[in-house]
Design goal:
The protein contains 14 helices and no strands. The chain is an all-alpha fold and 359 residues long.
C-alpha cells in the first residue's frame, strides 16, 4: 500500500505540476505579505500602546478558535473527497477481480459441459475477447483502433478479421457483442440433434439446468461490465472540486493572517509545508477518479486481460489432454489400510461436530 501511494504521489506531481505549483505559490506569497504586515503592526503597536494597531493584533489573536473551526471543516471536505476518489478506484479493482473469476468459471463450464469441440473452442475465444473488449470500452476505444489489441488478437488466432470488422462497424458496446455471441453458441450447442452438443444427453435431469448455469454467469459478467461503465461515466460531482479548492484558499488566506501575527516569519514556512501536503492529497485524489487509464496508479487492465487469456488457454489444454477427466474418474490416493479409513483424530472431530449440531 505504501508503494502504491508513492507511485501515486510521483504521478500526481508529473501530470499536475503547473496547477500544483501555482496553488502553493499563491498561498505562499500571501503568507509572506501577511508576515510582513504583522511585523509592521507590531512596530506600530510598540510605538503607540493602546492604539489601533494593538487592538488589531488582539482581534486577530482572538481568531484562533474560529480558525480551528474553519480548519476542521476544510479537513473534513478534503478527506471526504479523497475517500470518494479512492473508493472508486478500489471498487473498480473489485469489479475486475470478479470479471476474471467469472470468466474462468465460464471457461471451465464450457470445457466440462460443451461436448462439441468446435463450439467449445469458439466460446473460449469469445470469453477471452470479452476481457479485451471491456478494456477497450473503458478507455473509450474500439478493439480495432490504434493502441488496442484487435490486430494482435487476429495474429494470435483469437479473432478473425471478419469478426473484428463486424465488431468495429456494429454500433454497440463490444463486451456485450461478445456476450451475445456466447449466448448464440449456447443455442447452437442445445440445438445439436439428440442433445449431443452437451456432455449430458436430453434424458439426463441435469441437461435442462446447464443453460441456467451458463446464463447466470453471463448475467453476472453483464452486470460487472455495467458497473465499470458506471464508474467511468459518472465521475465526481463538479461541486466536490469547487468546494475543496474554495476551502483551500479560504483556509490559508485566514491562517496566513492569524499565524503571521502569532509566529511572525515562521508563518510562511508553516503555510508552505501544510499547503504542499494538502495539494498532494487533492491532486492524488484527482488521479484516482478515472481508474481505467494508462497512469501507473490505474488498474492494470493489460495484466488482467493477459491473466484471463493465459488461464483460459490452460483450461483448454488440460481439458483437451483428458487428464482432468481421467483423474476425476479413477484417481485414488495411496493410503495404508482402507481408502476411506479415518484416523482417530478425524473421528473425534466428527463426533464433536455432530454434538454441536445436535445442540
Amino acid at each position: 500500500k505504501s508503494e502504491f501511494f508513492l507511485v501515486l504521489l510521483l504521478q500526481s506531481i508529473g501530470d499536475s505540476g503547473i496547477f500544483f505549483g501555482a496553488c502553493i505559490l499563491i498561498v505562499l506569497v500571501w503568507s509572506i505579505l501577511c508576515a510582513w504586515g504583522s511585523q509592521w503592526l507590531h512596530v506600530l503597536a510598540e510605538s503607540n500602546p493602546g492604539g489601533a494597531a494593538e487592538r488589531w493584533i488582539e482581534d486577530i489573536e482572538n481568531c484562533k478558535n474560529a480558525l480551528s473551526i474553519v480548519g476542521t471543516l476544510f479537513v473534513f471536505t478534503l478527506v471526504f473527497r479523497f475517500n470518494a476518489c479512492y473508493d472508486r478506484w478500489w471498487e473498480s479493482r473489485i469489479f475486475w477481480g470478479d470479471i476474471i473469476s467469472k470468466s474462468l468459471e465460464l471457461g471451465m463450464m464450457n470445457r466440462s459441459w460443451i461436448a462439441n469441440e468446435d463450439l467449445a473452442d469458439r466460446m473460449s475465444r469469445f470469453v477471452i475477447l470479452f476481457s479485451y473488449a471491456s478494456k477497450a470500452l473503458l478507455r473509450g476505444k474500439s478493439l480495432n483502433e490504434d493502441g488496442e489489441d484487435g490486430p494482435a488478437l487476429v495474429k494470435r488466432g483469437l479473432l478473425t478479421q471478419e469478426e473484428l470488422d463486424d465488431m468495429h462497424n456494429n454500433p454497440c458496446w463490444q463486451p456485450h457483442y461478445c456476450l451475445h455471441v456466447i449466448r448464440e453458441i449456447l443455442v447452437e450447442a442445445h440445438s445439436v440433434p439428440g442433445g449431443k452438443g452437451l456432455t449430458f444427453d436430453e434424458n439426463n435431469k441435469v441437461h435442462g439446468q446447464l443453460f441456467r448455469c451458463f446464463d447466470n454467469t453471463l448475467k453476472n459478467l453483464n452486470v460487472l461490465i455495467g458497473n465499470c461503465i458506471r464508474v467511468r461515466a459518472s465521475g465526481l460531482p463538479a461541486s466536490y472540486d469547487a468546494i475543496v479548492m474554495m476551502s483551500y484558499f479560504f483556509f490559508f488566506a485566514i491562517a496566513s493572517v492569524v499565524w503571521g501575527v502569532n509566529v511572525g516569519w515562521m508563518a510562511p514556512i508553516i503555510i508552505f509545508t501544510a499547503s504542499f501536503v494538502i495539494m498532494f492529497l487533492i491532486v492524488m485524489g484527482t488521479k484516482l477518479v478515472d481508474p481505467f487509464g494508462h497512469d501507473m496508479v490505474d488498474i492494470p487492465l493489460e495484466a488482467f486481460c493477459k491473466t484471463v487469456e493465459s488461464q483460459i488457454y490452460d483450461i483448454d489444454q488440460r481439458s483437451k489432454s483428458g487428464t482432468v477427466r481421467r483423474l476425476a474418474k479413477s484417481s485414488k490416493p495411496q493410503i495404508l489400510g482402507h481408502p476411506l479409513a479415518w484416523s482417530s483424530e478425524n473421528k473425534s472431530m466428527h463426533r464433536i461436530s455432530n454434538s454441536l449440531q445436535a445442540r
